[in-house]
User: What shape does this take?
Amino acid sequence: MKILLVYPEFPDTFWSFKYALKFISKKATHPPLGLLTVAAMLPKEWEKKLVDMNVTTLRDKDLEWADFAFISAMSVQKAAAREVISKCKKMGIKIVGGGPLFTTEYENFGDVDHLVLNEAEITLPPFLEDLRNGCAKHIYTSKELPDIEKTPIPLWELINMKKICIYEYPIFPRLPF
Ligand code: B12
Assistant: This one.
């Protein structure tokens, strides 16, 4: 199984620091932590690629390669997420949506094949099990909260941290600790 994990582009917001990041040769203020964590929960033998659209371009050949596109987004990324969904639909790629955007307004995403909502530690395993058995449903949700100590370490190998400025915001002074 080939999984393309996609993080849609942020619009210009305070937290995007789009103009300031140029001065330190970075393209994004933070890594797509939810997607990297979900990637670590997928079967080891599945092939995985991650495209963070804040750092690089989503190419047709990335989509052609994939069996599934796993999209993660906050509500602020809604317009960009919609564009990714349309692209996937046009190319016939199945979509799995998760993260805050899909969790808070799943009723607006009837066109997404599978909505794996809330905490993936709880909702992803039943989805994967159903997928294996050929009976994956449209929505997986749960109010249960996971034991964070059991959450796997994000699959850092999927991204290039050189272009990402992790919590060292250019306009903040360095803290003395
Ligand atoms: C750290 C943080 C930030 C950081 C970095 C964000 C990041 N992605 O690393 C900063 C400070 C930059 C930030 C900024 C903003 N944030 Co913020 N942030 C958070 C915070 C505290 C933690 C996010 C995190 O990294 N969690 C750890 C990872 C592992 O968890 P996760 O991303 O939630 O992913 C889990 C699930 O969502 C799910 N999942 C996620 N993606 C996917 C994908 C698939 C396919 C599947 C199956 C599952 C899945 O599985 C994961 C494991 O359980 C959350 C609140 C919270 N406690 O979660 C708010 C939160 C995500 N932020 C929020 C908001 C609103 C913002 C801002 C828009 C605020 C603003 N007004 O400017 C900005 C937007 C950024 C921008 N560029 O414009 C909201 C989003 C609400 C929404 N519906 O979109 C949250 C939920 C806070 C809240 N309760 O309101 N934020």
User: Anything to note?
Assistant: Residues 103 and 117 are 5 Å apart (CA to CA). The chain has a mean pLDDT of 92. Helices lie at 18-21, 33-41, 60-65, 78-91, 100-104, 120-132.
